[in-house]
Design brief:
By secondary structure, this protein is of the alpha+beta class. It has ten helices and 13 strands. Helices cover 49% and strands 16% of the residues. Its EC number is 2.7.13.3.
């Protein structure tokens, strides 16, 4: 992992993003400016419609009407003289008084044309030049409804698609750059964080640690944190395992010494019985801690073999009754045929046995433990139900935390809170799941589900 070097100001991702947004703003402004130029561009002349010539020919063919055709004069219908140039006295350019500047510019432009043309200007169609002897005229009429609609559609067809495509192109380019530059590294960091949460000391950060901006600095820090967390976690697990191993030797010597001191008189002593019970209980706690440490450190390879659930449960019942004769008749197994699974028999027995012992320990003195099976096409779920008082609903989510005990709502005479933690770790290793709840009809129920890889019925 590279050193956790600091980001220099000119390598800052913040400055790069600001520069990029500034560039996008400039591009947007340039697009808006170009659009404004396009929308305000001068209207180009086009070929004149035949209605001008057809309507005005009788009037314009009579040169003696020249003096009557003053600028601003209404000729026929809505046709009006806009500008006049030349004539018998060569009076120069004459425009309609108060004529709009845009219309005046269009009239002057048309007077300089060689052939008659027309231009839409400010709601009017301006056309010319019309020859009348030595003079030339520019005449206008209001735009028709069809011409107004066509002009509006033409404007929309001209500039609106261009503006839209330009906006799509700019935003698409910006999104692509941001995705590669910013969003994709965040996804990589999110995936690496999940890997660290799963226990990885070397999350896959790709080329992120080589970046010289804030994201690279964050990636390097995340990599260092992963190593530190893994080191601390391993040290804690090793300490727990080492302490457990060290405790077993003096505990074994205590058991041997207790056996050597055993006599008929001593065996009847309450102090002797309590000492034997505590040594046995302490040995169980140490074994549980060792198993928990092994499961948390990870089992490299499961010993998978065909395991008959029916045979396993019958063997478990026999062992429990041999150890605790008072359990006889109190462990009720499923009556239906159970499948055979390809799994690890030791871990499976460990999980089920802890759940059953938990039911006896926290149930009433003469209570029963019921095991039922729910088999579907993909999994087999064993439900272990006792007749105890259940658990406070607010504490159900903490039952699988090591050393947690739900007292005082449940019996407090046995256990240190490792049984359910062991079951959960074992179920995870076996690819299954475990849940706990208070049964609606009373008692505490644990559901242990495993993938169903059926090889035969037994």
């Amino acid at each position: 992992m590279q050193g956790n070097r600091r980001t220099r100001w000119y390598q800052s991702l913040t400055l790069r993003l600001l520069a990029f947004f500034w560039l996008l703003l400039l591009l947007a402004l340039a697009g808006a400016f170009m659009s404004a130029l396009y929308l305000t561009r001068p209207v180009q002349p086009e070929m004149m419609d035949s209605d001008f010539e057809r309507t005005l020919s009788p009037i314009l063919s009579q040169s003696d009407n020249y003096e009557l055709l003053q600028p601003g004069r209404l000729l026929v219908g809505d046709y009006r003289v806009v500008a006049r140039k030349g004539g018998p006295e060569d009076s120069g350019l004459e425009l309609t008084p108060g004529l709009a500047q845009e219309t005046a510019a269009a009239a002057i432009r048309l007077l300089n044309q060689d052939t008659p043309l027309q231009m839409p200007v400010r709601g009017n169609m301006v056309a010319g030049p019309f020859p009348m002897g030595s003079a030339h005229l520019v005449i206008s009429r209001p735009l028709t409804v069809d011409e107004l609609a066509e002009l509006e559609n033409q404007d929309l067809q001209d500039w609106l698609p261009n503006i839209m495509w330009m906006a799509v192109a700019i935003s698409g380019f910006g999104a692509l750059v941001l995705g590669v530059w910013f969003v994709m590294p965040l996804k990589r960091l999110r995936t690496a964080t999940r890997e660290i949460a799963a226990g990885s000391a070397e999350p896959n950060l790709g080329r992120l640690p080589r970046r010289r901006d804030e994201l690279g600095e964050l990636a390097r820090t995340l990599g260092s944190t992963a190593i530190e967390l893994a080191t601390s976690r391993d040290a804690q697990r090793r300490l727990l395992s080492d302490v457990s191993h060290e405790l077993r030797s003096p505990l074994a010597r205590l058991q041997v010494a207790l056996d050597l001191l055993e006599t008929e008189d001593v065996k009847n002593s309450t102090h002797w019985q309590q000492l034997e019970k505590d040594i046995f209980r302490l040995a169980g706690i140490i074994d549980s801690i060792l198993w928990l440490s092994r499961l948390e450190n990870g089992i490299s390879q499961l010993e998978r073999e065909p395991v008959s659930l029916g045979h396993l449960l019958n063997d478990l019942r026999g062992d429990l009754i041999y150890e605790h004769p008072e359990y006889k008749g109190r462990l009720l197994l499923p009556e239906e045929d159970l499948p055979t699974l390809e799994t690890d028999p030791i871990l499976l027995r460990l999980a089920i046995e802890n759940l059953v012992r938990n039911g006896f320990q926290y149930g009433p003195e003469e209570g029963k433990v019921f095991i039922t099976a729910d088999i579907t096409g993909t999994q087999c779920c064993l439900k272990i139900l006792d007749e105890g008082p259940g658990v406070d609903e607010s504490k159900l989510g903490e039952l699988f935390v090591p050393f947690f005990r739900a007292d005082p709502s449940r019996h407090h005479g046995a256990g240190v809170g490792l049984g359910l933690a062991l079951c959960q770790r074992a179920s995870t290793v076996l690819g299954g799941d475990i849940e706990a709840r208070n049964h609606p009809e009373g008692g505490f129920e644990a559901t242990f589900c495993l993938p169903l890889n059926v090889t035969k019925k037994k």
